[in-house]
Amino acid sequence: MLTERLSMIKFNYNLSIAAIMKYEDPYVLEWVAYHHCIGINHFYIFDNDENSGLSKILHKYIDEEIVTLIHAPGPTMMFKCYNQVINSYKDESKYIAFIDADEFIVPIEDTNVFDVIDQLITKYKQNDPKVSGLVMKWAVYGSGNHINKPEGLMIENYLWKENGEADKHVKTVVDPRAVSSFNNPHFPLYKNNYYSVDERGSKCAGPFLFIDNRDIIRVNHYYYKSEKEFRNSLNNKMSTINPSLKEVRNLMA
After folding, report:
1. Percent with pLDDT over 90 in the chain
2. Residue in 107, 50, 38 with CA at minimum distance from that of residue 74
3. Longest dimension (CA), the chain
4. pTM for the structure as a whole
């Protein structure tokens, strides 16, 4: 039984993030620093950009073994990378969140995101041991009327949340030992009838959540950024923020 196996494993990390990145050099340091601030222990970052500077930008976190940076060139690599995490690193972390570099996990009231996730999954697992993941609903942020990339942090520059169809998407944090594979960036395929719940304990069977439950945890999605950056991203193919901006900047130093 997975619950019994969990009690026997000594994890290196309570909570990790897995992500694949391309053209993210200007944003990755803030993204790592922010998530490290709120209690993410480790990052599995797959570098899909042949000309990236991620190894230089993240050298401090790599040297401290907070970031595992993996070279991953080539087209359509997301699911290969996600599945590599499931196959190769599943016993290193109690939970792993699968998100992108323009997504920021936001625990609404508690600063430590691991505590929030662990308490929710543990609570709902008491009712059904098959509960093995938590979906976190998107909150999509627009350009904030910025034409060009502004100075400062992304989480302080883009504060206008948009309401629309995209807000119905979720991202998922999982017990990786319960996951078979990924074929959708928002939601995994589980083994043996394991499943995810939302923050209210309702079973979720796919990448959408049609009720507005973002009272405990959500994912801020900075999809657009400035108008110029949005155009560039097309050509290339919070908000509630718990840690202080000073803390994030200190971790970026």
Report:
1. 67
2. 50
3. 53
4. 0.88
